Amino acid sequence: MKHPDMYRGQEVVVLGLAKSGVQVAKVLHERGAIVTVNDKKERDQSPEASELEALGISVICGGHPEGLIHEGVALIVKNPGIPYSVPPIQKAIQLGIEIVTEVEVAYRLCAAPIIGITGSNGKTTTTTWVGEMLAAAGMNPIVAGNIGTPLCQAAQEATEDNWMVVELSSFQLKGTESFRPKIGCLLNIAETHLDYHGGMEDYVESKAMLFANQLESDTAVLNWDDPFCRELVPYVKGKLLPFSMTEELVQGVYVSPSFVPDQEDNLKRHIVYRDVEGNRTGVVNIDSIGLPGRFNIENALAAIAIAIAAGADPYSLEEVLSSFRGVEHRLEYVTTTGGATYYNNSKATNSKATSMALASFRQPVVLIAGGLDRGSDYMELLPVLNGRVKALIAIGETKDKLAHVAELAGLKHIVTVDNGDSAAAVLQAAVREASALAEEGDVVLLSPACASWDMFTSYEERGRIFKEAVHNL
User: Fold this and answer.
1) Distances (CA, A) of 310 to 116, 135, 268, 274
2) Strand pairing report for 163-167 and 98-100
3) How many whole angstroms separate alpha carbon 219 and alpha carbon 200?
4) Which of 87, 84, 98 is nearest to 176 (CA)?
5) Is the sign of the CA dihedral 355, 357, 363, 364 positive or negative?
6) Cα separation, 269 vs 257, whole angstroms
7) How distant, in Å, are the alpha carbons of 145, 300, 341, 428 from that of 231?
8) DSSP H or E segment with residue 170
């Protein structure tokens, strides 16, 4: 797309009245574009509409009118979650109208170098961690996008003295053209969002857009242990900085079983940074990392690589790595009651995320799982259910599928909670069932392996209701 200043006097349609849609509509309106915002929600469900109309922006709610998209429209900025199959997007494609997401608009406005972080799992934790590392190093980060400040708003406020740290989804990246992060990080790729992308090929291609416009002076941080990430190496144009849990890298960030620095102290299980000249620096002992679980060690490796690529001193990172306690809804400790410990992992919206969470615990787990049915058979969960989970409480559209996998795994306690009067009532009943099965020393874990939209407006709502139900036991 062109710079936002170049749409003055031209028609622009913004699809979706979420935070990002509101901000991008304001940006383009302030620059003289003729902006129409459209959302299929009814007007009484769209409180943002009045704010935009007060500025002189046209807002249409309650569906997509026939004449919304026409040859006179110069640009469409769509909410990332709106699929390309919906009629207004299909018509725009037929007419050759440019279609982007807010990320592309914000990139055109942003004076600060951008750190873009994507992956199927771990994005929010890694993004937040990087922000704290750069703040500790005095590097003026702005954490924005899916977390923090809406990206267009942050982009207008940023200066060359900031670093913009941005969590990015495949939905957002698919709608980019010229977006170029100074540092791009791909954490991992798992089978997810295939209902949106139609298959793994489009999903991987969308993630790879993170690196499409990078130059030799930019940096690509990749998970060396993930086969999908490794396959993208030939397409990386910038400097490659890999990270690995399993391999001692020629250059990159990795876990060393035994690292001996210059002072001859034998530091076991150390995260090590090896620079392009082969010099090794011990960053932190993994036993000191403040978050549980193997997957959080991977998140730490990625965050370290990003921070170092941005110019942080490796020796400055240990305190943040040790003190960081995570992000809400990501393996979040809730409380200990009746001898059992409760964790909220509502952000686990696919099987891999739930598998990774289960692998974090040595204690017996009572698992609450289930949600939107996107066609998966959940057989990926079979190995971790077997021997690690003592009971399953299944909810949502996928409850029967998950119960079937639990039966194959040999679980003795399987409970399906039928949909009641409300989603909250179902989850509250699930918590009570889990509490009745949990014994002293057990873990009760909400880790759904599914998106929330069959019952809840978001994974955040699901996580908050879970926590309230736990505290009301």
Assistant:
1) 12, 12, 27, 15
2) unpaired
3) 25
4) 98
5) negative
6) 5
7) 27, 22, 40, 44
8) helix 170-174
Strand partners, 77: 14, 100
pTM: 0.79
Helix residue ranges per DSSP H, 215-317: 227-231, 294-310
- Residues ≥6 apart with Cβ < 8 Å to 442: 339, 340, 341, 363, 364, 365, 366, 390
Residues 101/277, Cβ–Cβ less than 8 Å: no
Residue carrying structure tokens 């400790």: 333
- The neighbouring-strand residues paired with 116 are 166, 184
CA distance 71 to 60: 19
| Cβ(62)–Cβ(40) below 8 Å | yes
- 21 CB contacts (<8 Å, ≥6 apart)? 14, 15, 37, 39, 48, 77, 79, 102
Alpha helix ranges (H) inside 31-97: 48-54, 87-95
| Signed CA dihedral, 175, 178, 181, 187: sign only | positive
User: Do residues 174 and 212 touch, judged by C-beta distance below 8 A?
Assistant: no
Task: State the helix-helix crossing angle for 123-136 and 294-310, rounded to 10 degrees.
Answer: 40
Write out the two tokens for 407: 């039966």
The whole-number average pLDDT for the span 134-157 is 90
Amino acid letter at 205?
E
User: How far apart are alpha carbons 304 and 322 in whole angstroms?
Assistant: 13
Q: Is the pLDDT confidence value at 191 over 50?
A: yes
pLDDT digits (tens, 9 = 90+) for 444-458: 999 999 999 999 999
Residues 6 or more apart whose CB falls under 8 angstroms from that of 429 comprise: 417, 420
Distance between CA atoms of residues 49 and 284, nearest Å: 49
What is the rounded CA–CA span in Å between residue 188 and residue 221?
Answer: 11
- The Cβ of residue 362 has, within 10 Å, a number of other Cβ atoms equal to 8
Encode burial over 340-355: b for 16+ CB neighbours within 10 A, e otherwise.
Answer: bbbbbbbbbbbbbbbb
Q: Which tens digit of pLDDT belongs to each residue from 206-217?
A: 889 999 999 999
Least Cα distance to 81 among 56, 111, 102 occurs for 102
pLDDT of 385 higher than 70:
yes
| Helix locations, 191-328, DSSP H | 194-197, 200-208, 227-231, 294-310, 318-323
Strand arrangement, sheet containing 267-274: 141-145, 163-167, 114-118, 183-186, 219-223, 239-244, 252-259, 267-274, 280-285
Which residues partner with 389 through β-bridges?
365
